[in-house]
Amino acid sequence: MHRMRAAATFLLLLLAFACPAAAHSNRPVASGSGLGFPSASHGELLVLSAYRAEILALARSVVETDPDFRRLMNYAAIEFSYCGWGLAPGAISDESSPFNECSHAYLSAERALLLHMRGMPSVADRAGELASRIDADMVQHGASLIGCVYSGEGFNTADFVTPHWENIWTHAPSAVTAGAAIVFGVVLSAACLVPWPVMRRRMKSS
């Protein structure tokens, strides 16, 4: 019974990772609903990632909200989870990463969120100050001049972007990470399938 439960749990985990890729397209499609916003350039993405914590902390302090604020906030949070919580190697810095487009999506949404907060009374001054600091940093690094294939792409809160799973094995850092995750999953599932007393005996005898 325990072995069946462990096997079922492992299967569900595999399905959980597979389902998002099937449920949404990699690239946004034209949508009549939702809120549209432009993509940050590749250089801007690198700067925005350094200010992400400040942008979200400011958003959490908002007293009043409106539909556009909630759409952008929810979209950014969902995209961040779809994009592996920012843990994929080279997701932001490497244009060839399967996670680069979805990184553009959530960071561009957070930039749009910051710009929107400049018009919200409870945080307008702080949002303006933060936006000015980010702009100055971007100018200093020439961020707007550094582009990539996703720099001119628009996004919409009704259209989610998932990683390009089909390119995982052609992107070396992602392939290594995925391979390590698979090995870890196999070892973990094997450990769950072998009763603990049996494992202890094997460990003692080795």
Would you give an account of this structure?
- With 206 residues, the chain is an all-alpha fold.
- The chain has one domain (2-205).
- Helix content is 61%, strand content 3%.
- It is built from seven helices and two strands, in the order αβααααβαα.
- The protein has helices spanning 2-23, 42-60, 67-82, 100-117, 124-141, 172-193, 196-205, and strands at residues 36-38, 154-156.
- A two-stranded antiparallel sheet has the order 1-2.
- The model is unreliable at 1-25 (pLDDT under 50).
Number of distinct helices = 7
Cα end-to-end separation: 28 Å
Number of domains: 1
- Structural class comes to mainly alpha
What percent of the residues sit in helical stretches (DSSP H or I)? 55-70%
Output the keywords.
3% strand, 206 residues, 7 helices, two-stranded antiparallel sheet, mainly alpha, disordered N terminus
